[in-house]
UniProtKB/TrEMBL annotation:
Taxonomic source organism: Ceratodon purpureus (Fire moss)
Pfam families in the record: Aminotran_1_2 (PF00155)
Residue ranges of the region described as Disordered: 72-92
Domain of life: Eukaryota
Record GO terms (molecular function): pyridoxal phosphate binding; transferase activity
Lineage of source species: Eukaryota, Viridiplantae, Streptophyta, Embryophyta, Bryophyta
GO CC annotations on file: membrane
UniProt keyword annotation of Magnesium present: no
Segments forming domain Aminotransferase class I/classII large: 101-448
Annotated metabolic or biological route of this protein: Sphingolipid metabolism; Lipid metabolism; sphingolipid metabolism
Keywords: Lipid metabolism, Pyridoxal phosphate, Sphingolipid metabolism, Transferase
Protein name (record): Aminotransferase class I/classII large domain-containing protein
Amino acid sequence: MSGPWDAWLDDALQSLGDAMLLRSLRPLVLPETHVVSQDRHALPTFEGLGPWDRAGVAVEVSHATVDAWLRDSSSTGEEVERNPNHNAGGGDNAEGELHKLLLFSGNDYLGLSVHPAVRQAAAQAAVEFGMGPRASALVCGYTSHHRLLESTLAELKETEECLLCPTGFAANMAVLTAITSVVPGKRGSGGSPVAIFSDALNHASIVDGVRVAQRQSNAEVHVYRHNDMMHLHQLLTNCKRERKVVVTDSLFSMDGDFAPLKELAALRKRHGFLLVIDEAHGTLVCGENGGGVAEAFGVQGHVDIHVGTLSKAIGCHGGFIASSRKWKQWIQSRGRSFIFSTALPVPVVAAAHAAIMVAKKEKWRQHNVWALVRQFSEATGLIFTSPIAPILFGDADAALEASRKLLKMGFHVPAIRPPTVPVGSSRLRITFSAGHTAADVEALVKALPVWAKKKGPSPNFLPTPVSWFPSSLEKVATQKCLHEKHEKVQDKQVRLRPKL
Ligand SMILES: Cc1ncc(COP(=O)(O)O)c(C=O)c1O
């Protein structure tokens, strides 16, 4: 790279650095556990946690990485190569050379990414098929393995069809751009553009999908206040566009709260909009069958398009769109981020399928993760309603300092700052996995400073896991934010947020 680009990039890096926004890669050393079963057709499932589960939550990092991390110095992970004692494979490190870290930061809510059946499915598929025919799905990248996974996901979501995408991000982009390119009547004969209504705290992939749709199809965009159904109703009522789409996360990734899906279903009936929900964090976590937040609320049939990812509770990688056959046809024909990207590798697809099968058999995983949420809520006196438990600071430096303190004590709890969350709402984002034990949560609670434990009434609305899903989700859905302070910050942010 030369010429003006060099200078532009230097400047950009400089300002990011000044704003403390240069991100770093921190290489984790994963423990080795050899658990591939001998029987190639068996799907090993278990009654409880096994040693393999540890690999999903307990890792190690080099001291050089910890030092760089604590100093908040920019890194590309190069310190691991500089340290001659460090071996990225974890092989011949003497004991005590690595810093042990318990992760409370991942999205592998059921711990399936390290499950023996998932490892085995990926390994066998790799041995038998390699990485698959490498091309986009529409060329030659789509196989019977992809089809089987799509059918399994459609069954999970109770939809006619499902379409696999390279990632959840790509799935949201494909949905939003494809939907808004629908022109009624003869192609090119006009029709007013679609109006999109998007929750103020929707995920970045929705925000970007909406932006592209706006540019590409001249879509009219309205951002409604987070979970504020009155605001949405007003915007819908005042909007003269014929074709309307409402899009929302079902379980918000940074706040851990739920979209009020029952109210959205009622509004859909009244206003006749297309309802798109992003179940990235709800799939396999919520609902008796793991169908997601829509299942937990009993509104699966009122949702037109369910977007999901294979990279969170399913423990693998990739995205999907569950919908009617017609919507699938449209999206696979018009969703550019689906069309122009290589299909998922077969081992990943086989592993995701195995993960869903395991989740169905090992129901205790779902129960465990909710039991940990309950334990954490009771121990801290704070109300947490999902395996995503944010502790709000407001100030970015304070959140960073708290994260650093926990890191020193062996807990990885990231500080989430703007632009990921609204200005003034920096937080620690704690997440739970079925791979954690009650002792892990107890240790985390002990490590959290007093400021993070507000002694108050125990959150008695959390009854026994699983049986409580539908009823208590309704209760928490009406709760706009987790803390009073947060509510104020969000209101302010919505006012400040520029139009998409
Ligand atoms: C709500 C939400 N939607 C979509 C995505 C994107 O999923 P993926 O990581 O598969 O691209 C994420 C991931 O962070 C998410 O949190």
